Amino acid sequence: MDQSPGPASVVFDPSLTDYDFGPDHPMAPVRVDLTMLLATSLEVVGPRLVTVGAPMASDETIATVHDEQLIEAVRRADPDEQRGLDTDDNPVFPGMHQAAAHVVGATVEACRQVWSGVSVHSANITGGLHHAMPGRSSGFCVYNDVAVGIRWLLDQGAERVAYVDVDAHHGDGVEAVFRDDPRVLTVSLHESGQFLFPGTGASADVGGPGAEGYTVNVPLPPGTGDAGWLRAFHAVVPPLLRAFEPQVLVTQQGCDSHRADPLADLELTVDGQRATYLALHDLAHEVAGGRWVATGGGGYAVASVVPRAWTHLLAAVSGVPLDPGTPVPAAWREHVERLLGLPAPTLLSDVDDAVRRPGGPAFRAWEEGYDPASWLDRSVQATRVAAFPYHGLDPLSW
């Protein structure tokens, strides 16, 4: 990793945690508070990573992606199931529009930071709300901040934007917004929709007319761990990004792929997630001149996983990654135990020092051969066969 990427920022304001569906909802805003506290305690946020204030997105900005009728319904906090409001996933709450618009504004600001050159990398960990559709809120996502941010980049003159989504759930909302636009390459790695919400994201889904190959999906079997995930990631993402040559890389780092997450069935460790973040950082420098906008997303093990995973993400954004063997500060652990009554992890790693491999989790590279008996390999190869030819890539080459 380049240790001196240039200025880097995190867009944050404590009031972003007003995006709060209530005490019984899985998406607890305390996960954001704990992340920022841990990252600050470890001096990731501070001299390495400048904190930038988060503006509120205007209705006009939100309307570049979302229907005015949805915006008005959210503003009124209408119980409107047709628009995905007041459902189990998206219960309405006072100030919903302001809270959701603030998240959108934070991601647009991260995009502005990077596109203007003020920051080489910029993050909004409260963002990544990738399920919201133009006319409907969905899956804990009121507005789709990522899609609005990408639209903003296009409106500023960006000609090629790549979006890589590593949440356990398919990035269906961002895909839907841009599936007919060849200026945007969307790549989603996720647990197969056969088993997990939103039930979409098959390998054969490659985009709309005139934009075939610019929608890419890698559905993975339940139980996929670090080795399988990284094998799939490296078999698909780097070749496509190199062929596409984006001007900006936008990513969504939902950490619900972790083995402890209660809402998905993947088996990654924090170490595997960290390896993914470092790979995305390096790809941003290789293919996009370093321009990288990183967002959060899912993640519902709010104390044991999310703060560690996203602290590693913020460290990657800063250009100075943290050693996985770094101890979690005692004061942070005590705070978690007092606040939530839960035991807190002691290391930034899930892997014992005795078995950790240099360079991160081990995986078998795609170049070592395809195994047709492997469900994961069959899925990855189906994606390569479906999407690679549109980019002049040979899906059968190793």
Automatic annotation (TrEMBL):
SUPFAM superfamilies: Arginase/deacetylase. It comes from the Bacteria. This is Acetoin utilization protein AcuC. Pathway: Ketone degradation; acetoin degradation. PANTHER family: HISTONE DEACETYLASE HDAC1, HISTONE DEACETYLASE HDAC1-RELATED. Keywords: Acetoin catabolism. InterPro entries: AcuC, HDACs, His_deacetylse_dom, His_deacetylse_dom_sf, Ureohydrolase_dom_sf. Residues 25-316 form the Histone deacetylase domain. Belongs to the histone deacetylase family.
